[in-house]
Amino acid sequence: MIVIIDYHVGNLMSVQNAFLKLGMDVVVSRDHDVIRQAKGIVLPGVGTFPVAMEHLKQYDLIDILNERQQAGIPILGICLGMQVLFEKGYEVCPTQGLGFLKGEVRRMEVQAKIPHMGWNDLIMQQKHPLMQYVHQGDYVYFVHSYMAYPTDDELIAYCEYGQEKITAVVAKDNVMGCQFHPEKSGKVGQKILLAFKEMVK
């Protein structure tokens, strides 16, 4: 079973529907007992970094996410859900993140329109099981104004926007994140969710 974390930030139903279309056993929950039964966890999110972290605290989800991360359960963050996996964010005000990945989240510094909204092609930095069915140049759908600045060893894929390198996929051990929305990225997004399904034992 895959659990989509319900912390009142974002598009839970569209993410759930994307998994259901692939025949996955998936539920939306913030119940600790349900989360402990999960073979995989998805952390979605739309909004701002400090609000996301405040909601995780409000619903007492930080300790359980730490517990599951340390237990080796695959965790996939999507958009804002990916950003809060990092150590710190600077949207609105400096805010501590979950710290599963090294680096910070800051406003994009690009010579192009912000937010970065629309389809962009992926450039692979290194191989990873999450991206096993995705090819160089495949297009995915982005909507964001802030981006993660990860370490090189945790950067899996990026895109180019405004002549800058924009973080697209990150991973370390059992923790993964997509800045774009797989659930809105057509067949390419489905391939990524399918790969995540296959990583969930």
Automatic annotation (TrEMBL):
It comes from the Bacteria. The active site is at C79, H181, E183. GO terms for biological process: L-histidine biosynthetic process. Pfam families: GATase. SUPFAM superfamilies: Class I glutamine amidotransferase-like (SSF52317). One of its GO terms (molecular function) is glutaminase activity. GO terms for cellular component: cytoplasm. Keywords: Amino-acid biosynthesis, Cytoplasm, Glutamine amidotransferase, Histidine biosynthesis, Hydrolase, Lyase. Pathway: Amino-acid biosynthesis; L-histidine biosynthesis; L-histidine from 5-phospho-alpha-D-ribose 1-diphosphate: step 5/9. It catalyses: L-glutamine + H2O = L-glutamate + NH4(+); 5-[(5-phospho-1-deoxy-D-ribulos-1-ylimino)methylamino]-1-(5-phospho-beta-D-ribosyl)imidazole-4-carboxamide + L-glutamine = D-erythro-1-(imidazol-4-yl)glycerol 3-phosphate + 5-amino-1-(5-phospho-beta-D-ribosyl)imidazole-4-carboxamide + L-glutamate + H(+). It is found in: Cytoplasm. Residues 3-192 form the Glutamine amidotransferase domain. InterPro entries: Class_I_gatase-like, GATASE, Imidazole-glycPsynth_HisH. IGPS catalyzes the conversion of PRFAR and glutamine to IGP, AICAR and glutamate. The HisH subunit catalyzes the hydrolysis of glutamine to glutamate and ammonia as part of the synthesis of IGP and AICAR. The resulting ammonia molecule is channeled to the active site of HisF. Heterodimer of HisH and HisF. This is Imidazole glycerol phosphate synthase subunit HisH. It comes from Massilimicrobiota timonensis. The lineage of its organism: Bacteria, Bacillati, Bacillota, Erysipelotrichia, Erysipelotrichales.
